[in-house]
Amino acid sequence: MESWLYISLGLVFFAVSFGTLVIYTFLFGERIQMAQRIDQVVSPAPVPVRELELSVPLYQRAIRPALAGIAGRLVRIIPAAREAELQKKIITAGNPGNLSAREWMVIKYLGAVGLGFLFWSWAGLTDKSLPQSIFLAGVGIPLGWLSPDLYIHSRIKQRKTQVEKALPDALDLLTVSVEAGLGFDGALMKVAEKTRGVLADEFVIMLQECHMGKPRREALRDMADRVAVDDLSGFCGSVILADTLGISIGNVLRTQSQQMRQKRRQRSEEMAMKAPIKMLFPMVFFIFPAIFVILLGPAVLQIMKAFAS
Fold first, then answer.
1. d(Cα 50, Cα 52) in Å, to the nearest integer?
2. 3-class DSSP state of 175
3. The Type II secretion system protein GspF domain covers which part of the protein (predicted)?
4. Least enclosed by CB within 10 Å: which of 10, 120, 165, 190?
């Protein structure tokens, strides 16, 4: 009986509190919101420096400065040729994380040491022998060293695939825009506005470089070097040649669009021809054994029974 009394009192307290909150919000809620808006517009409260520092992501606040500091100490160890080659790959990959080549080298060193130590610790926790621990650590070090390179190469391949798929449609839209009366720069801006992806971003960067004073030829060459796709390099070379010789840009774009669509059709046919060969391995190793077990299993059992009797 006392439990029901306590439950009833709790429900009454909850109902009274909720009703008071609703009435207060109904009567004074609009005034409170208006006062808050006035305070934000007229006299915004100064944000403390500590809060501003904490609002920055942890990556920008701690990890990035640490990588930069370690990279500054490893400058003498990193070969200049290796750094230039890695920087070119990073640019082709779209500059993931806005990290420089030295910072990526630091990540490679840390990955090699960290993964080797992790494998060594795991071997110690699982009571492995000393040769096994050394072997696992030897496996972890090159794996940690090569993991950043594998990530960069996957980004490069992904970006190139996106550009190859988007280029024919972008050239069609570019051709239509130029034939409708837009200039080449205006047509590129229209393509960048109507499309999304790596190619649109590269067009925007190229136009920004042109607006900052870089000649169009150099901006096109730099874009082709950044993306490193043969189709885009051919397109940029054709536009540069047309601009140099005074050829109609519309005819060049129309010819390039037809060639790009033909190349994309040829790639699709090539992938379709490779599909049966790629399907052969999973069929042989996964599908055929299951079929043989289902078909020949009863016969094998009967043969075993016959020989057993």
1. 5
2. helix
3. 171-296
4. 10
